[in-house]
Give the backbone structure.
Amino acid sequence: MKKTAAKNIREIGSAHLIYGLLACTLMAVAPHAGHLLWWVSALCAVLLGWRAYLAYSGASLPPRWLLLAITLGGTGGILISFHTLFGREAGVTLLVLLAALKMLELRAARDAVIVIYLACFILITHFFYSQSISAALFMLATLPAIVATWLHLQNGALSLNTRLRMAAVLLFQAIPLTLVLFILFPRVQGPLWGLPQDAYASSGLDDKMSPGSLSRLSLSDAVAFRATFAGKPPMREQMYWRGPVLWEFDGRTWTPGKAGRAKPAQLDSLDSPSEYTVTLEPHNKPWLFALEMPVRLSIPSELTYDFQLHQKSAVPARLRYSVRSQLGYRANAEEEPRQLQRALSVPGDLNPRARLLAAEWRIQAEAVPPPQPSHEGKGGNRALAGVDETIVRAALAHFNREQFRYTLEPLLLGANSVDDFLFGTREGFCEHYASSFVFLMRAAGVPARVVTGYQGGELNDLGGYFIIRQSDAHAWAEVWLRGRGWVRVDPTAAIAPARVQSGLAASLPDSAALPFFERNASPWLRNLRFNLDALTNRWNQWVLGYDPERQFAFLTRMGMEAVTWQKMALNMLGGVALLVAAFALFMLRRLYARNTDAAQRLYLRFCRKLARGGIARAAHEGAQDFAARASRMKPQHAAAIADITARYLALRYGGQSESGALAAMRRAVAAFRL
Amino acid sequence: MLTALKQQFRIWLFRPKIESGTVMLTQRRIFILPTWQGAGFALVLLLMLLGDINYNLSLGYALTFLLGTLAMMTMLHAFRNMAQLEIRAGRADAVFAGEDAQVAFHFYNRSGLPRYRLTLRDDGGHRITFDVPAWQSVEVTLPLPALRRGWMSSGRLTLFTEFPLGLFHAWSYLQFDTRCLVYPRPAAPLPLPANLAQSGAGNSGAAGDEDFSGLRGYVAGDALQRIAWKALAREQGLLVKQFSAQQGRELILDWALLPEQGAERKLEILARWVLDADAQKMHYGLRLPEAELPPQLGPAHRAECLRALALFGMDEKAP
């Protein structure tokens, strides 16, 4: 047994190589530890530890049947956990497990190569989870380890330092070409094939809303869609991109509910038209987004009774459509009683305090005559509409008056979530405000519903379009007022007007995300934080967000006219050829440099030093004659002059070619002082 | 037709030529192709690229391009690892058939770049791997089995390297005019012929193995019976007992007196006798159908005799 182990090690190098491979595997796998199944992480740790012990003790590798059993067991476990071996999560888990197992099956150089390839491949899977600057830095730290181990595989005689140095050189030399490829490689509109379900599971708006669902989404910088306006874009506070409308509340979660047979949507009194094109990122959901309210769409779709745009099936790939929206509208002024009834239902007897508050508002509103009904209605309706409007105003005033905080990290709520929020924690994200507002309205007898979607967007000056990200996800309310139909009310605007006017970042107190910096508000730290933020923003914009559109915009700005992928490919090939040629020249230049040339250069440096001392070598003067003359003129340096001249002659004419001789001459010339 | 075209292409590409003196590995002489390992890595990179495109991984693109560029750059490194290397074939000492000819090559690295993991191999799969440090030269001895007597050429040798990452195979063909003389394989020990009659001066008697006169170092081909085993046991090395033959005894090893058998077999027997006679310090001569070497003694004579046997029936000039 001992003998086979020794043979294994001899075949693929030494125990040091195994340690190197272990380090590579560990570095590649470690960042996954957090999101792998716990037993996979544990199993991998055990396997790698075992391998390290075997390498240390020189014992033989485990028999194949044992490895096969572990492999089958692990694969089976993954299959049970994920119900598949494909897709992102299961695939990554399987890959990590196989890499750890391969370490225990290092029998030949080929196995070591496979381990290195696996490490490279696992490195890329980190980017499924994070593409932050730190992830990039970790990648850059792992690569030298992998390349150094790879070099060890080829040449076990090199020292670790030499290998690391060579690896660094190899990587540095690769950077310029990488940049050219990164910028010019024609970016393809992914995905290439139907993505597994988990590809977008983490991003995108759902048709359910519970406390925390939107704030989680707000942490994602992923693009939801982009919009290019034909004319002047509307004001930011008018940009409500309508998504799923939620009717039913079970005390915690809002869902669309069952509409039954409803009469079609009806819009009138339209004004402020806006025309734009939306490029929707695939979100695997059937709905499309448009500004409230859409009246015309370039692709077939259905406008539901509650003004949602629906496609027949989910959107599996990037989708482009043009929309005409009317920003001023009256929606379903003649709503069916059945739908109004739905918009008034509240679950069971939850949230008693909120009901009480709503009832108070109702009594107060009915007691005082409506001050100025803003819209005309018919006779008795007017009074009623006025009462409902008063209630809405009272609720908004309540949100405004009481100390509500707008935060991404609200405290957890109990069973009476609305009561807890309104009278307890008083901090929440837009879903908390929309949810409790609609609850209050219903409790007060005003038909109301929750609308989810996106609000605002970021203007991209470069491309002249708006980017709407997942972090722009928003929830607001709609109340039905007699004569005016469904009217949008955004309670979040009452608490954090900046959210609607300038976006999420402006409306959150800094302390929400960075308590440390808040406590140490020195100018230096603030500067650092702003710089870091700017860096992250640049990173997001230019590295992560370098998609076909950005590439197009960038190349246009760089002066490329009519950017096509053919042109990009040609430019890329040209750039690559140019750089490779430059590198070839640079790398091979040392090959053609002869020692004699180097000696000549050193000798000339020596002559310049003498010339500065007043002894210039004549063009016809040979080295020995010159040395004799210089020695006569500077007898105190005669020994040094003779020494350097002898070294030069030996190197140049004596056929001496050791690097040692050249280095000695270099030292002698450097030390020479007149 | 196709084979002929292929042959033409190979001649155009590789320009096979037997060279002498010092060969410098210029750009024209170095060829590079990806290895199977390199093809495997390309496949891994392709998978990575598909993943980048499909999942829109910008950092993934960066990593894929970085690794791809790194892999491509190793092509230059592999080339550089061989380029401008100077090679001179050294002499190879004569050997007996069945032994390994030690063909020496000198590699000169007249640059500041250390050359790593160069491998010299012949078409038969014999290889040796070595490094050439910067500004230095190394002597590399490639053991090539000598199968038949006569002149053995080192044949077409391949110098290759897969350094630094094993993704590219850079190689160059070397065919030197260096040749190695291969003596016939000595036959199994058998008594020297008794045809001392022609020597004239000598009185007939047993071969010179009666009077022990001392020990001398072992020479390939010495009879086993004459090895001084006791000396070996005393750790004095491999020595051979020497017996003084009577002066003036002369032995003619005559081709014609050998019993009728294959020419090669006859040469093997003669080679054995030359060695034995030389070991016993006899004056011996060699008589072949084509040539005759008068009786003499000494290493030069021994080499001349063996050379005559090695080249028996062959054109002296042939490689």
Notes: Chain A has 25 helices and 18 strands. The first strand of chain A starts at residue 223 and ends at 229.
